[in-house]
Design a protein that fits this description.
single chain, alpha+beta, Dna Ligase, domain 1, 19% strand
């Protein structure tokens, strides 16, 4: 069993609660700072490991911010989906798109690829930030 899986569920629960209260995508550092501000005794390494564990099990979404940093959010859908993400405030909307799925299959087939996975994230500015 891996070190992360052996870790206290108290720590995993604390990270999960911090994600739920974050209201959008947040970096591991942001979550760590929030947890420490709330008095949690947790290391940044544990936050990273826990986020990776939660991502591997499919309970959090992971994106790359416009500057390349991994950001995390509690996943509200267990189905394959993509995101429309605001570059200003980080607000995100989960989207499903048959067009994206069909395009990915066509491109893979055209180039002889099989067992293909894909991520498609669309970045822009939300109505609130644009207004």
């Amino acid at each position: 069993m891996s070190e992360t899986r052996k870790r206290s569920t108290r720590q995993r629960e604390a990270v999960s609660r911090a994600l739920e209260g974050a209201g959008g995508f947040r970096s591991a550092q942001d979550l760590f700072d929030s947890l420490r501000d709330d008095g949690a005794k947790i290391s940044l390494t544990t936050v990273y490991r826990t986020l990776q564990y939660l991502a591997d099990e499919g309970s959090v979404d992971v994106l790359r911010s416009h500057d390349g940093e991994a950001i995390y959010r509690r996943c509200s859908s267990s189905e394959h989906h993509h995101h429309l993400v605001c570059r200003e405030c980080g607000a995100a909307v989960e989207i499903e798109s048959d067009e994206v799925e069909d395009w990915a299959k066509r491109v893979a087939t055209r180039h002889g690829f099989t067992s293909v996975d894909h991520l498609a994230e669309i970045y822009g500015v939300c109505q609130k930030c644009a207004g």
